[in-house]
């Protein structure tokens, strides 16, 4: 049978000399057979195949990890680390592990943090980093380096990289940040600079494609449980009480979905990938009325990007964008709370009714990473370091089917990880909540 495996090309720096990996002399490692990753080691994008269709090509990525030879002399490395976009649990852990990994694994001594996101390259003084300084950063939420949205001026950023002499750049951010990283990589390549560029995807929404999950996601789901539990107590303690929780998720509903499955107290989960409507047969109001009649209370979880198409807005609001170029969403939680109250007053005048609205957005994204995400952040950081030291550039590190791989930046920047509502997991949500299939009902 012909081998139909297609291995994704990974950009590599040229003109640098190969040298022995210093891990050979590192007292904490005992390199043995299989320790170093060979060029032929790959990770398949899919592990489940239909053997009856042998013609389907298999996509594979180069496996992440240390190489026997590296292309950088550690004493000549000048590394820059930048955090961009919104906050996410684990950002400080990634920074810490990049610093400690570069310092302890490879002997790099020039490591700098770029403050305030992309604009910090050309408008602020970098912070020199070392293991002692970052020692306890993983215990703190947010990012000690500070972050911001926007400020992406490609020419100024690459000029600053070139003039400052950075030859390794580690970029931590979400999908918009990764698109910016692609442009930086392209411009660095056009100028023929010997600078390794790597992205470490950060998005609490878990909407980065190809990789299994983005860091901070599991912490976010865990924290969402507290908000759902509070909403459940409030709803259960009232007459005709509804607990309404808005969770993060602009374009994808992964946090809402996983929090719903983990909680089991949720009666309805609304996500961007699955439309819903309020009035009429099979609508949200009809479902909630029956739930209140049967149980006396209900808990409703909604992702921030759900229902945006049915929220009334003026022309100016339709055009408004944030500094990252994203459509400014209206607050679906505030709108839904108001709509629920208007509905009840219209249909059940003089009957008791309460809606308790909880928005834990900033509480969720500002906390330190939990144990699982902390470990994950370490593996991401070390994988990135190994790749850059080996001379790879223009890539993202991340797990694919549980195995860490190097993925071209462009692929990650262009791919979204959306909830597949045809997947058994969404059917599981509906079986747990007993909510109707709003889209099918509407089309019917």
TrEMBL record:
Substrate binds at residues 203-205, 248-250, 304, 362-365. GO terms for cellular component: cytoplasm. Its EC number is 2.7.1.11. The keyword Zinc does not apply. Coiled coil: none annotated. ATP binds at residues 86, 149-150, 174-177. The active site is at 205 (proton acceptor). Keywords: Allosteric enzyme, ATP-binding, Cytoplasm, Glycolysis, Kinase, Magnesium, Metal-binding, Nucleotide-binding, Transferase. Its cofactor is Mg(2+). The record marks 176 as: Important for substrate specificity. One of its GO terms (molecular function) is ATP binding. The keyword Magnesium applies. Transmembrane segments: none annotated. It is found in: Cytoplasm. Mg(2+) binds at residue 175. One of its GO terms (biological process) is fructose 6-phosphate metabolic process. Its main location: cytoplasm. It catalyses: beta-D-fructose 6-phosphate + ATP = beta-D-fructose 1,6-bisphosphate + ADP + H(+). Allosterically activated by AMP. It holds the Pfam family PFK. Belongs to the phosphofructokinase type A (PFKA) family. PPi-dependent PFK group II subfamily. Atypical ATP-dependent clade 'X' sub-subfamily. PANTHER family: ATP-DEPENDENT 6-PHOSPHOFRUCTOKINASE 1 (PTHR45770). Catalyzes the phosphorylation of D-fructose 6-phosphate to fructose 1,6-bisphosphate by ATP, the first committing step of glycolysis. This is ATP-dependent 6-phosphofructokinase. It comes from Raphanus sativus. The lineage of its organism: Eukaryota, Viridiplantae, Streptophyta, Embryophyta, Tracheophyta.
């Amino acid at each position: 049978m012909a081998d139909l495996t297609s291995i994704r090309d990974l950009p590599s720096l040229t003109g640098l000399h190969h040298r022995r990996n210093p891990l050979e002399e590192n007292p904490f490692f005992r390199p043995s057979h299989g320790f170093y990753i060979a060029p032929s080691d790959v990770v398949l994008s899919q592990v489940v195949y239909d053997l009856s269709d042998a013609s389907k090509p298999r996509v594979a990525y180069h496996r992440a990890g240390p190489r026997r030879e590296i292309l950088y002399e550690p004493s000549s490395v000048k590394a820059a680390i930048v955090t961009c976009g919104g906050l996410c649990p684990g950002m400080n852990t990634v920074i810490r592990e990049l610093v400690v990994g570069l310092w302890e694994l490879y002997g790099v001594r020039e490591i700098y943090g770029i403050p305030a996101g992309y604009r910090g390259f050309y408008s602020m003084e970098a912070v020199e980093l070392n293991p002692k300084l970052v020692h306890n950063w993983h215990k703190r939420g947010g990012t000690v380096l500070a972050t911001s949205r926007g400020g992406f001026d490609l020419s100024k950023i690459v000029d600053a990289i070139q003039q400052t002499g950075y030859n390794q750049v580690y970029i931590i951010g979400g999908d918009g940040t990764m698109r910016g990283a692609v442009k930086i990589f392209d411009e660095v390549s056009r100028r023929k600079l010997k600078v390794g560029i790597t992205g470490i995807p950060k998005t609490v929404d878990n909407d980065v494609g190809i990789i299994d999950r983005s860091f901070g996601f599991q912490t976010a789901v865990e924290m969402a449980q507290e908000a759902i539990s509070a909403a459940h107590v409030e709803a259960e303690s009232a007459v005709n009480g509804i607990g309404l929780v808005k969770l993060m998720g602009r374009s994808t509903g992964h946090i809402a979905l996983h929090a719903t499955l983990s909680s089991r107290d949720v009666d309805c989960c609304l996500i961007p990938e699955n439309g819903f409507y309020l009035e009429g047969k099979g609508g949200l109001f009809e479902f909630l009325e029956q739930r209140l009649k049967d149980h006396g209370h209900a808990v409703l979880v909604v992702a921030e990007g759900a229902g945006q198409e049915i929220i009334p807005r003026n022309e100016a609001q339709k055009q408004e964008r944030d500094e990252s170029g994203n459509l400014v969403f209206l607050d679906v939680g505030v709108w839904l709370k108001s709509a629920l109250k208007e509905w009840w007053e219209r249909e059940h005048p003089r009957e008791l009714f309460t809606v308790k609205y909880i928005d834990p957005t900033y509480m969720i994204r500002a906390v330190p990473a939990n144990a699982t995400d902390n470990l994950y952040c370490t593996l991401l950081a070390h994988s990135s370091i190994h790749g850059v030291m080996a001379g790879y550039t223009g890539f993202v590190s991340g797990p694919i089917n549980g195995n860490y791989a190097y993925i071209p930046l462009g692929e990650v920047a262009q791919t979204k990880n959306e909830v597949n509502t045809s997947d058994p997991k969404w059917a599981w949500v509906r079986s747990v909540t007993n909510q109707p299939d709003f889209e099918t009902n509407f089309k019917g």
